[in-house]
């Protein structure tokens, strides 16, 4: 294949406004360079830059050249090799069925660079969990520790803790040892396939910042490789911490290669989707052999976590029959159909320990799928859902016994008053393995706005302890999200995750809120835009009515106009108060003397 | 003035898709006609129409001609007159300062129809609270009872109660007597100025459906009369239960007349804004006389509730000085400035009982403003905020002593873990007077998306007992909302209110969710669109990828494509299960025999 003829996808690049990428080196592992974003403020603020978590990868760094057809730098490769427990090998050859038998012009070209895959030597477990249990602080763990701290110092932050953490154990300062311990206990995962060396390590766990996932992927109906690569870059630009490639159409293998080679965030998949393509979409024709082959194929490519619907068991299926919306998980419904047809327990369940053997050889994390999650308010927290959750708890312990990292997927559609029960039950049944929920959607009646119906539930369950929130876009239930939908979904979920961090009292979470609020109060409009989750939109909405540059320093906006600006008046008040001395002023006015006072006695009279 | 020369505003009219307006008559008051919307389903559903609450007024009824320059039918006039306690009088004459001294072409024309205002005879209280305390079930109260029930029958709904109501007392079936009792106890208000006979009565209280308010209004910078009337009609079309006219520019009086005469929902205002215009925007020049004159002016026009910032007291102002965002309520900051300048308690506080005298003569409800609400996460639940709330509790009892209806405004910016404290404290301090909150916004970092940051908080506080949620649009903090922003704000808040109703276990709330979910499961796409809060958007998003009519009956969407549709597979499963008999099937598979079983013992081993 002639690489120069490839239609290299164009992706969005360049820093966000007023932002610079900075790198922090490790101490235990001096070679690591942990990216953060510093947002510069106007000199009049007299404040240092605000440091924020940066999931965007090298695309926002003008110093790093981007070449999609070459892929990102394979930074982690030496870290993995230094551990001395992996070997390179030829790997599985790509077969026609891997791309849905598509040929000729309709075949998405292979990714131009071919790398030999790695796997564990012998029966070694090369997972972060295995290292953590062995007391090893890996480079990945130190990377995460630095990243989670956002450059803050322990002492300063400890003073401002304020929140209700529902029994979490969030430290003032994240040490590499803390990361190791959380992973060893199974309370966090660090998804990082040894064949995805382009990845910047991150952690998912209730004692870390709440993370979000964005789903991308083509379907049989729509979307192309170039679009999907750009969606991945775009989603991470706005804050997606992981990306799931849920492609179900043709070209699955090749599109995934392009995505992984260019992704700085962990990539998750549902291997069942590709396995089903390999048997022409006929669920009954699925076999363990086809599925196993798909796991190997994807593990070699570098997929960081697999959604595996092994909790759907035969005896649970009748529990879904009288539901309002039956089984709404694609994977769950496929497995249920298979189980019913063959009248036996699913091959995912029967071969679960073999799946563990594969995952531990590449460090693919489990995302145990909730195939029986509720798809409507009516079906929330029902017998089918919780029966499956019990099984997921048992599978969690099996995976742990094989040194595999595990998180648990959760619903779905759940009214607000049933959300906490989901979280509490998951923590109990799965011994605090990280929970990873889709929403949940708090009502069924707003298709077109399900990023919002679910953003409500996501914020709440994030607060209660959910470790990662899978975004929902405005297109949910209606179609495949495009680039705009992806952005709206990501920003909505960044809001939910951040609201959760604030409510949990995560140290340092409020730093950005405070900086933005000060900018707002001081009419530093540019700073207000730059500190926001979506500077472009904030600026555009402001400029709809006040487009001139002069308005960027105006002491009002079009909402109230100059005469009515409460913030402007507040400044006058502050000035007056400071003139007089606040303590004196407060004393003078407190329950002040001859003022109108019948009020205090009224309550008793009524 | 030649009426035919008036630029009569055009407003959006016509029913929503598949919807008919139906009217329910009263029993105690046979003349009343309570509007509801029935959404017809496809015949294949075999289901009756779904009845939903209808705040849209006559504009969605093709049978009712609309003439904006004539105003809506003055239906309540005979109800008010029949009580025999009001008198018509000449009323106050419009003065140049009422419209900001604007003249000539820039003056918005007066509303063409002039009606004599009504007021209470002598010192009578003509409030719904006074009637309720006297044991009188007014036509307005029966209207509300029918409206809240949505045509449902008690027995059927009682069976499906499911929720956590945090101590509310929501009945299975709302009787007129229940409405009377809730109003008598001060736990609900029924805002209905005797000079707003065009209004369709509604109730605000924690034991009724959660309501939402939309703010409209011009500012000195932007917006015209025609736009504001359309915004009011538009906001109610999508579900706004009340509308606040927060105009602060010129032409305030005349624009308000056009709005009220054409509004079927209660209209609220902040009279201080107009009073300030009358003194050329100089807060220090405000006087009780100017303010009192404005109250009379607006009461005669028919304003249904007044936001009055009487809780801002002199001794509280120093408590705001070290806040991150000072005072962010416009009314609060104006009064604080006045108090500081004059070094005395505000005229709102000193003359509160005279304000009560005015309100009881027209039945204008109080919305006690939270002038010291927090404007940032940092300032949430601070001493200033709660000091004011204590005062609002005392003012509530004074207003009640004068037979005035009262609700209490609330924040603002509050992180999730501090929301419930707001609700609990308000219920306690204000003896369950209805709470009416702005959001609250759960983070400060997302300007451009504050409908979402606040929709999260609104859903939660609605669940906890908040009676009405004041919407926030994407333009919050950035500019004045346009028509699109109004719609997004309203739909977001309908989601929050409905999610709250579901979580409280409001009887019947889930009917619409269930109907929509059944439609979704049965691939009745048209029904799914029609049952949604915003059918236009749902349809448009679906049609972006599958525009053809044939796709409206397709058993898949572009999200997963035909092969992967879980709902399609669920139907196969249901068919198979029903063939075999579900009970038998369940029995056969339960913990089935020889299946792979090491799992149950794993937990103990690990």
From TrEMBL, chains A, B:
Residues 15-87 form the ThiC-associated domain. Pathway: Cofactor biosynthesis; thiamine diphosphate biosynthesis. Pfam families: ThiC-associated, ThiC_Rad_SAM. Zn(2+) binds at residues 413, 477. InterPro entries: ThiC, ThiC-associated_dom, ThiC/Bza_core_dom, ThiC/BzaA/B. It catalyses: 5-amino-1-(5-phospho-beta-D-ribosyl)imidazole + S-adenosyl-L-methionine = 4-amino-2-methyl-5-(phosphooxymethyl)pyrimidine + CO + 5'-deoxyadenosine + formate + L-methionine + 3 H(+). [4Fe-4S] cluster binds at residues 557, 560, 565. Substrate binds at residues 215, 244, 273, 309, 329-331, 370-373, 409, 436. Binds 1 [4Fe-4S] cluster per subunit. The cluster is coordinated with 3 cysteines and an exchangeable S-adenosyl-L-methionine. GO terms for molecular function: 4 iron, 4 sulfur cluster binding; phosphomethylpyrimidine synthase activity; zinc ion binding. Its cofactor is [4Fe-4S] cluster. One of its GO terms (cellular component) is cytosol. Keywords: 4Fe-4S, Iron, Iron-sulfur, Lyase, Metal-binding, S-adenosyl-L-methionine, Thiamine biosynthesis, Zinc. It is an enzyme of class 4 (lyase). One of its GO terms (biological process) is thiamine diphosphate biosynthetic process. It comes from the Bacteria. Its EC number is 4.1.99.17. Homodimer. Belongs to the ThiC family. Catalyzes the synthesis of the hydroxymethylpyrimidine phosphate (HMP-P) moiety of thiamine from aminoimidazole ribotide (AIR) in a radical S-adenosyl-L-methionine (SAM)-dependent reaction. This is Phosphomethylpyrimidine synthase. It comes from Pseudooceanicola spongiae. The lineage of its organism: Bacteria, Pseudomonadati, Pseudomonadota, Alphaproteobacteria, Rhodobacterales.
């Amino acid at each position: 294949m002639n690489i120069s003829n490839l239609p290299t996808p164009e992706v969005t690049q360049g820093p966000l406004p007023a932002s610079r990428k900075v790198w922090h080196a490790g101490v235990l592992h001096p070679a690591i360079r942990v990216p953060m974003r510093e947002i510069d403020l106007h000199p009049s603020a007299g404040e240092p830059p605000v440091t924020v978590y940066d999931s965007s990868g090298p695309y926002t760094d003008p110093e790093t050249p981007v070449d999609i057809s070459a892929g990102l730098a394979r930074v982690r490769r030496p870290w993995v090799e230094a551990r001395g427990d992996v070997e390179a090998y030829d790997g599985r050859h790509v077969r026609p069925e891997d791309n849905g038998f598509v040929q000729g012009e309709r075949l998405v070209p292979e990714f131009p660079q071919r790398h030999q895959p790695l796997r564990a030597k012998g029966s070694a477990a090369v997972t972060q969990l295995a290292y953590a249990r062995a007391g090893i602080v890996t480079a990945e763990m130190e990377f995460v520790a630095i990243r989670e701290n956002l450059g803050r110092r322990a002492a300063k932050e400890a003073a401002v803790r304020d929140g209700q953490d529902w029994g979490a154990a969030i430290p003032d300062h994240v040490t590499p040892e803390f990361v190791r311990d959380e992973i060893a206990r199974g309370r966090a995962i660090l998804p990082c396939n040894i064949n995805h060396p382009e990845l910047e390590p991150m952690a998912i766990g209730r004692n870390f910042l709440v993370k979000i996932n964005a789903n991308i992927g083509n379907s049989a109906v729509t979307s192309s490789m170039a679009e999907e690569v750009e969606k991945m870059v775009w989603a991470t630009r706005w804050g997606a911490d992981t990306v799931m490639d849920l492609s179900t159409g043709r070209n699955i293998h090749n599109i995934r290669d392009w995505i992984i080679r260019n992704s700085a965030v962990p990539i998750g998949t549902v291997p069942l989707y590709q396995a089903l393509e390999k048997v022409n979409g006929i669920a009954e024709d699925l076999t363990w052999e086809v599925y196993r082959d798909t796991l190997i194929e994807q593990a070699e490519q570098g997929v960081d976590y697999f959604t595996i619907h092994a909790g759907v068991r035969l005896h649970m299926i009748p529990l879904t029959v009288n539901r309002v919306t039956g089984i709404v998980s694609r994977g769950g419904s496929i497995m249920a159909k298979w189980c019913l047809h063959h009248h036996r327990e699913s091959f995912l369940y029967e071969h679960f320990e073999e799946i563990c053997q594969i995952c531990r050889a590449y460090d693919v994390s489990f995302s145990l799928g909730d195939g029986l999650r509720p798809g409507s308010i009516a079906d929330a927290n029902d017998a089918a859902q919780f029966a499956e959750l019990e099984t997921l708890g048992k599978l969690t312990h099996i995976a742990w016994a094989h040194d595999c990292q595990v998180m648990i997927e959760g619903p779905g559609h759940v009214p607000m008053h049933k959300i906490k029960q989901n979280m509490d039950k998951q923590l109990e049944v799965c011994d605090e393995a990280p929970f990873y929920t889709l929403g949940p959607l708090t009502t069924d009646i707003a298709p077109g706005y399900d990023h919002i119906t679910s953003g409500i539930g996501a914020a709440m369950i994030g607060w209660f302890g959910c470790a990662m929130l899978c975004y929902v876009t405005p297109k949910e239930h209606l179609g495949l999200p495009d680039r705009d939908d992806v952005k709206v979904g990501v920003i909505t979920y960044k809001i939910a995750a951040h609201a959760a961090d604030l409510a949990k009292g995560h140290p340092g979470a409020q730093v950005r809120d405070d900086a933005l609020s000060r900018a707002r109060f001081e009419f530093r409009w540019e700073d207000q835009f730059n500190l926001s989750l979506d500077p472009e939109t904030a600026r555009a909405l402001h400029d709809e009515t006040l487009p001139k540059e002069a308005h960027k320093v105006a002491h009002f906006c079009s909402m109230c106009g100059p005469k009515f600006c409460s913030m402007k008046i507040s400044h006058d008040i502050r000035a007056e108060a400071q003139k007089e001395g606040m303590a004196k002023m407060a004393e003078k006015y407190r329950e002040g003397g001859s003022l109108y006072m019948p009020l205090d006695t009224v309550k008793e009279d009524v």
